[in-house]
Amino acid sequence: MKYPEKNVAITGIGQSRISRDAGFSPLSLTLDAVLEAIADAGLERSDIDGMSCWPGDYQDASGMAPVGIPALQDALRLKLGWYSNCRETAGQFGAIFNAIAAISANLCRHVLIFRTMYQATARKTSFANASFQPGGRAFWPYDWFAPYHAYAAASQQALYFSRYVHESGIKPEQVAQIALISRQNASLNPAAIYRTPITLDDYFDAPIISSPLKLFDCDVPIDGSTAIILSRVDCARDTRNPLTRIEAIGSSMQYRNSWTQLDDPATQALPGVAEMMWGRTDLSPADVDVAELYDGFSFHTINSLEALGFCPKFEAGAFIDGGSRIALDGELPINTNGGALSAGRMHAYGQVHEACVQLWGRGERRQVAGDPRVAALSTAGGPLAGCFLLVRDD
User: Fold this and answer.
1) Are residues 93 and 159 in the same domain?
2) Where would you find the membrane-spanning parts of this chain (predicted)?
3) pLDDT tier at 237 (50, 70, 90 boundaries)?
4) Which tens digit of pLDDT belongs to each residue from 251-279?
5) DSSP class of residue 160?
6) Number of domains present in the structure of the chain
7) How many Å apart are CA 388 and CA 142, to the nearest integer?
8) How far is CA 194 from CA 172, 219, 250, in A?
9) Cα(312)–Cα(296) distance, rounded to whole angstroms?
10) Burial code of 248-274, b = ≥16 C-beta within 10 A, e = fewer?
């Protein structure tokens, strides 16, 4: 097989309670998610022979990544043939891409992947947990932002977004549609953090966090965990859910890998990874039924719409104008669970979970009509980006 990802499927999903005040330890939340995922696949713990996570274990009280593989492996008493955490990868989907490689190398058959966040509780302890720590826990490039007092991700991304606004001419009321549609979808998701619909007036009345990003353009820190099971296709055929393959991935790094010296601040790293993904499949953007696009900030979703070819570069404003195209009943429903903007920040793993929910017909009130079979997913941020297509085979 030319591309190894086509021999890998998602066979099970699980998610803990997502909240702003868990009242449970990060490991407890992780166990809730992974045990649900294993059961959802119809597997036993003894079937799991691989583990992967992003970015690994941060013992820094930030809540960014409070659980790593050693603690979880021990809690589950798993005997593994392979495992990996991966801080330095092409975005948050690096855990998935590494697992694909391990499965293709016959190092394992069923890989447990998890992403745990505990930032809502951590930020009650110290506001510093919401900021970069120059010279400390954070990636070293953030030191370059310190002289300009850009200590938070919102300030950093606002710089890139400002460049995008300048080059594209997108209007604020068009940008707002990402947040409005996300909240509209979240209102139908009982697990979402924020479920009260918002209006355009609500969007404009909200505080500016870092111009041009407003409050509703920013994702929501949470406590929670999401888990997925990746399986070799021949093994996946015996699991519980419909066969749902990873059709193509994008993880290209054909550009300068720097947070401060980006080749194109307005688009960041997404165009290269999208080009790689579409080059590994016969599918096209017109075949996609639902798009679960990274929305750490609304800007990221806008970038994904363009980079993945759903609309031309710098024309996302016209594409999302009015919101009808990207609504649940539109031609390209996006972030159907509310995304990170309303359902809560899971660093795109909430979107992976939701893509399976949609392809397996479990969406209930938010289920996309027409029996969706192809989902597109993305991550984004500075030089980090990844994307993949998920296809249900019946």
Assistant:
1) no
2) none
3) confident
4) 988 888 888 888 899 999 999 999 999 99
5) H
6) 2
7) 28
8) 22, 11, 31
9) 22
10) bbbbbeebebebeebebbbbbbbbbbb
User: Is the same domain home to 180 and 264?
Assistant: yes
What range defines the domain where residue 265 resides?
151-218+243-392
Please say whether the beta carbons of 319 and 310 come within 8 A. yes
22 Cβ contact partners less than 8 Å away, ≥ 6 residues apart = 29, 118, 120, 121, 223, 224
Cα 115 from Cα 55, distance rounded (Å): 8
Output the domain CATH number for residue 299. Answer: 3.40.47.10
Residue 210: pLDDT band with limits 50, 70, 90: very high
Tokens of 49: 């022979």
Residue-averaged pLDDT of the chain: 93
* Bridge partners, residue 111, by sequence: 50, 230
Element (H, E) at 153: helix 153-168
Q: Around 222, how many Cα atoms within 13 Å sit in the side-chain half-sphere?
A: 29
Q: Which among 274, 43, 287, 314 is positioned nearest to 170, based on CA atoms? A: 314
Task: Give the whole-angstrom CA distance, residue 325 versus residue 319.
Answer: 7
- 192 has pLDDT over 70: yes
Asked if residue 189 belongs to a domain, the reply is: yes
State both tokens at 52. Answer: 């992967």
Paired tokens of 19 = 């909240």
Tens-place pLDDT, residues 142-168: 677 777 777 788 988 999 999 999 999
β-pair type (82-85, 50-53): parallel
Characterize the bridge pairing of strands 82-85 and 110-118: unpaired
Copy the structure tokens of residue 188. Answer: 């139908």
User: Within this chain, do residues 76 and 176 fall inside the same structural domain, yes or no?
Assistant: no
Asked if residue 182 lies in contact with residue 341, where contact means CB atoms within 8 angstroms, the answer is yes
With beta carbons less than 8 A apart as the criterion, state whether 351 and 335 touch.
Answer: yes
